[in-house]
């Protein structure tokens, strides 16, 4: 897994033997076991790593007014009960929430207002709730409907 894996050597002295994986990949799913020997004592821990993925069709960035399909999947083994999508949470009146059983969210004609933070939340039959956040980029025009730009003759205009 090198060079994606690291240990924080300075933290080991404080009893922190955390493993850092960056970036996490689907093939990293599974059970991890750590053994630490300190003097004559041996300590161990087990951690299971699960993965959640957000995929876009077509891939990011999205062009304004083209059909967008966002899906969210997890390696969790229980039955999926519900999936919810939250757009721009805690940002006031533009905040939106969509819930379904299928897991996919279709936006027929995405606009610049659809850009920003999207969080998918998966709720499972065993009461487990897993979520991931995705920053959606939309390529389009975010100016006035009928733009008119005036520039002095001989100057530059953008």
UniProtKB/TrEMBL annotation:
<comment type="function">
    <text>Lymphocyte activation gene 3 protein: Inhibitory receptor on antigen activated T-cells. Delivers inhibitory signals upon binding to ligands, such as FGL1. FGL1 constitutes a major ligand of LAG3 and is responsible for LAG3 T-cell inhibitory function. Following TCR engagement, LAG3 associates with CD3-TCR in the immunological synapse and directly inhibits T-cell activation. May inhibit antigen-specific T-cell activation in synergy with PDCD1/PD-1, possibly by acting as a coreceptor for PDCD1/PD-1.</text>
</comment>
<dbReference type="GO" id="GO:0035723">
    <property type="term" value="P:interleukin-15-mediated signaling pathway"/>
</dbReference>
<keyword id="KW-0732">Signal</keyword>
<comment type="function">
    <text>May function as a ligand for MHC class II (MHC-II) on antigen-presenting cells (APC), promoting APC activation/maturation and driving Th1 immune response.</text>
</comment>
<dbReference type="GO" id="GO:1990782">
    <property type="term" value="F:protein tyrosine kinase binding"/>
</dbReference>
<keyword id="KW-0325">Glycoprotein</keyword>
<feature type="domain" description="Ig-like">
    <location>
        <begin position="50"/>
        <end position="131"/>
    </location>
</feature>
<dbReference type="GO" id="GO:0042289">
    <property type="term" value="F:MHC class II protein binding"/>
</dbReference>
<keyword id="KW-0391">Immunity</keyword>
<comment type="similarity">
    <text>Belongs to the LAG3 family.</text>
</comment>
<keyword id="KW-0472">Membrane</keyword>
<protein>
    <recommendedName>
        <fullName>Lymphocyte activation gene 3 protein</fullName>
    </recommendedName>
</protein>
<keyword id="KW-0393">Immunoglobulin domain</keyword>
<dbReference type="GO" id="GO:0070374">
    <property type="term" value="P:positive regulation of ERK1 and ERK2 cascade"/>
</dbReference>
<dbReference type="InterPro" id="IPR013783">
    <property type="entry name" value="Ig-like_fold"/>
</dbReference>
<dbReference type="GO" id="GO:0042110">
    <property type="term" value="P:T cell activation"/>
</dbReference>
<dbReference type="GO" id="GO:0002250">
    <property type="term" value="P:adaptive immune response"/>
</dbReference>
<dbReference type="GO" id="GO:0009897">
    <property type="term" value="C:external side of plasma membrane"/>
</dbReference>
<keyword id="KW-0812">Transmembrane</keyword>
<dbReference type="GO" id="GO:0005576">
    <property type="term" value="C:extracellular region"/>
</dbReference>
<keyword id="KW-1003">Cell membrane</keyword>
<keyword id="KW-1133">Transmembrane helix</keyword>
<keyword id="KW-1064">Adaptive immunity</keyword>
<comment type="subunit">
    <text>Interacts with MHC class II (MHC-II); selectively recognizes stable complexes of peptide and MHC-II. Interacts with FGL1 (via the Fibrinogen C-terminal domain).</text>
</comment>
<dbReference type="GO" id="GO:0045121">
    <property type="term" value="C:membrane raft"/>
</dbReference>
<dbReference type="InterPro" id="IPR036179">
    <property type="entry name" value="Ig-like_dom_sf"/>
</dbReference>
<keyword id="KW-0964">Secreted</keyword>
<keyword id="KW-1015">Disulfide bond</keyword>
<dbReference type="InterPro" id="IPR007110">
    <property type="entry name" value="Ig-like_dom"/>
</dbReference>
<keyword id="KW-0677">Repeat</keyword>
